[in-house]
Amino acid sequence: MKSEYLRTLVESIATGSFSKAAENLYISQSAVSRRIKFLEEQYGYSLIDRRGQVLTATEAGQIVIAKAEKMLRLENDLMNDLRVLSPKPGIIFCCTPSFGISYLPEIMKDFMLLKPDMPELKFFFEMPDKVVDGMRKGLYQVGVIEHNEDYDLAELETFELPGDDVVVVSSPQLAITEEEMPFERLACFDLYIRKEGCCSSKLLDYNMKKLGRDYAEFSRVIYYDDLHLIISSVLEGYGLAFISLSVVKKFVKEGALRTHRVTGFEHAYKRTLIVNNASASTRVLGYFIEGIKGVFNKIPSKIDA
Fold first, then answer.
1. CA spacing 20 to 30 A to 20: which of 86, 90, 102, 154?
2. In the prediction, which pLDDT does 28 show?
3. Going from the N-terminus, what domains does the chain have, and what CATH number goes with each?
């Protein structure tokens, strides 16, 4: 069994979307469908329930995914052990999804113009805790996290990057004109948030506890693990989201989304570039690190810049 087929199944359920899985795996949506179909024919069971807006695993799919995740972790451990024996020149980079969506395309465009013959590039999107854990274990050479808590990064080299704002966004269809609103105004609407552990969810939890508020006060709280689905839902006017400003900057500039701040909330978090000093230091890796730093000199931080 090819591991990429199992990885495709895991990614499809994790994102709830064939199109998002295809995007994350850098393959076509038709390739995703073919791989899932092959697995279902191989095992003789339907593995994905396709009836809802978000893909979910069937009972058989849950069994396969549980085993697949273990197999993929073992394969990852195996590759890391072999890499130590005969390291190949390349870059393994991990960052939070919001950073990847906002900045990685620009970083990669400049980097590939500089090093078009780069032999191996691997990118992973993870929550901040997992990025830090992977950096400590040597799974990644370079990482970027967005965070509002302090991590113990003493054994790693770090560089402070410009931070980001996390704001409430709404569609003009909802006719919310206030730039700043009290929590009671926010709670009148459905709220779309990502799973526990992501940057914006952690900051939202912190703010809720700080104000002594409860999620039950919202009209509804809807959890999606896919930023694209959250943004799409808000664009359609179905509710609000507490989200990284850099992720939605394009829609704000176009007037498709409005930004709001909540009285008493903290809206900023830090951004840190992490380098594993134990990794083989190469000129190419240095170029990539400088490319991450340099992108902030090119991309305006303000919406109307």
1. 90
2. 80
3. 3-85 (1.10.10.10), 91-152+276-298 (3.40.190.10), 163-268 (3.40.190.10)
Cα–Cα distance, 177 to 187 (Å, whole number): 16
* Residue 195 predicted with pLDDT over 80: no
Q: What angle do CA 240, 243, 249 make, to 5 degrees?
A: 100
Which position has the token pair 């069971």? 45
Angle, CA 106 vertex, CA 104 and CA 107 arms, to 5°: 60
* Long-range Cβ contacts of 105-113 (<8 Å, 24+ apart): 106/295, 106/298, 106/299, 107/288, 107/291, 107/292, 107/295, 110/291, 110/294, 110/295, 111/287, 111/288, 111/291
- The span from the CA of 272 to the CA of 91, in Å, is 18
DSSP-based three-state secondary structure for 124: strand
Question: What are 250's two structure tokens?
Answer: 């394009």
Report the pLDDT value the prediction gives residue 286, as an integer from 0 to 100: 85
Selection from 12, 126, 134, 10 nearest residue 70 by Cα: 10
